[in-house]
Amino acid sequence: MKHAIGWIIPIIVAATASGAVIDWIYRYHAFTVEPRVAGLDGRPEAPEISDEPVDLTGTLETFDGQPSSITASWPGFRGPHRDGILEDPSVELAESWPSEGLPELWRIDLGEGYAGAAVHNGRVYIIDYDMDNQRDAIRCLSLDDGREIWRYSYPVVVRRNHGMSRTVPAVNDDYVVTIGPKCHVVCLDAETGEFLWMIDLVREFGTTEPLWYAGQCPLIVDDTVILAPVGTETLMMAVELATGQVLWEAPTFDRWQMTHTSILPTEFDNVPAYVYAANEGIAAVAAETGEILWKTDAWRLRIGIASPIDVGDGRVFISGGYNRGAMMLQIEQQSGEFVPEELFEQQPQVFGSDQQTPIYHEGHIYGVRPDRQLVCMDPDGTIRWTSGSENRFGLGAYMIANGLIYILNDDGLLSLVRARPDRFELLARARVLDGHESWGPPAMADGRLIVRDLTTMVCVDVSAQ
Predict the structure, then answer these.
(1) Any bridge partners for residue 356, and if so which?
(2) Does the pLDDT of residue 22 top 70, yes or no?
(3) pLDDT at residue 7 greater than cutoff 50
(4) CA within 13 Å, CB half, 245
(5) What mean pLDDT comes out for the span 109-137?
(6) CA–CA separation, 358 vs 149, rounded Å?
(7) Domain 31-461 has CATH 2.130.10.10
C-alpha cells in the first residue's frame, strides 16, 4: 500500500501541473479554432516561396461597359467619412422588404477573397485576383449593370490563403488607388484605367507582408494618398497622387509591423492626425508633417483586423478578436504633448471584434462581438443591448445608412436593424447571396447596396422605390 501511494502521488502532482499549464496556454496564448474562419488556424494554408515576378508591367484592357449617370459616391473603405455611415436624405430607404426578396440589379463572379467595392461617378471599383493568369486585377464596372468598363492587371503570385484580395480601393474624380495582397500600391487614372505609378511596399520600404495578405485600405485625402508601410524605417507616409512622390514619412518603432487594419483620419485638439494600429502598439502622426504625435503599447495585437474608430472628445476605440476584447483610449495634451491614457479595457465576451470594424453612430458603438451577436454599447463601456443567441451574424460585414443597420451573416442572409440604443429592433431579412464567407465590406450609393461573399458580388436595390 505504501509503495502504491508512493508512485500515485507523483502522478497526481504531474497531472495537476499539466492541467495548470494547459489552462495557462488556453487563457493567454491559444486561439479559438473554428473551421474556415479567416486566420484562426494561425498559419498560411500553403508555404510561400520567393518566386515573385520582378517585372510587374501591367496590361490595360477595355470592355463595353458604360458608367452610370448616378453620381452618388462611396469612395473607399467605410464610405465617404471613413466611419461606416451614409447619410443621404435624397434617397428614401425601405424599412420592409418584399417576401420574394430584394430586387437584384446585377451579379458578377470574382476571384476568391473579401475585397469590397468603392463607387464614384457611376463606376464601381474593386481589386480582384485572376487565379488562372496569376495577376492582380483592378476592375472598373458600371454601377447600372455590373458590366466591365476596363481592367488593369499585373503579374503577382498569390496562393490561396483564406482567399486572396481583401482591400477596398480609394477613389476620387481623378485617381483610383489600390493595395494588392502582396502590398503593391497602384495608382491609375480613375476614368480610363491608365497606369500612373506603383510602389512595392515590401521591396521599397521593407514591409513585412501580413499573415493573410494585405488588409489595409488606402486613404485618399485631397491630392495625396496616406499609407502605413510599417517597414524598416517608415511607419506612415503621404504620397502625391499625380506623381507617386513621397511627401513625408513618419518614423516607425522597433518590431512594429503592418496588420490588417486601416488608417483612421481624425484630429486631437484641432490638430489633424492619422492613427494606425500596428502589431506592437498604436500611434498617431500629424497629417501635415508626419510628426509622431503620440504612441502607446497598451494595445498590442498580432492579428489586428478591426481598425480604430473615433468616438469624439479625443477618444480612440480599438477592438480585436483572437482572445482580445476592446480598449478605449483618451488622448489629452499635457505640458504641450499629446498623451494617450487607457480609460477601460473589456474582455471579448463583453465586446470585441474578430474581423469587422465597429461603427460609432449618434453617441453609441455598434459591432459584432466574438460570440457573433450584434451589440450596442455606450462609449463608457456599458452594454445597452445584444441581439440575443437567436440572432447571430458570424463574421459578416455591416454598415449604417439613414439610421438603418445593414448586416450580413456568413452565408449571405442580409438583415435590416434599426440603429437605436434602447433595444434590438429587427425590421427585415432577405437572402442576397448563396455562398459563404460574406465578409467583404459593403458599399452603398443611391439606394444600391453592393455586397460580396468569397466568390460573388451582388448589387441589390434597398430603396423605397
Answers:
(1) none
(2) no
(3) no
(4) 4
(5) 96
(6) 33
(7) yes
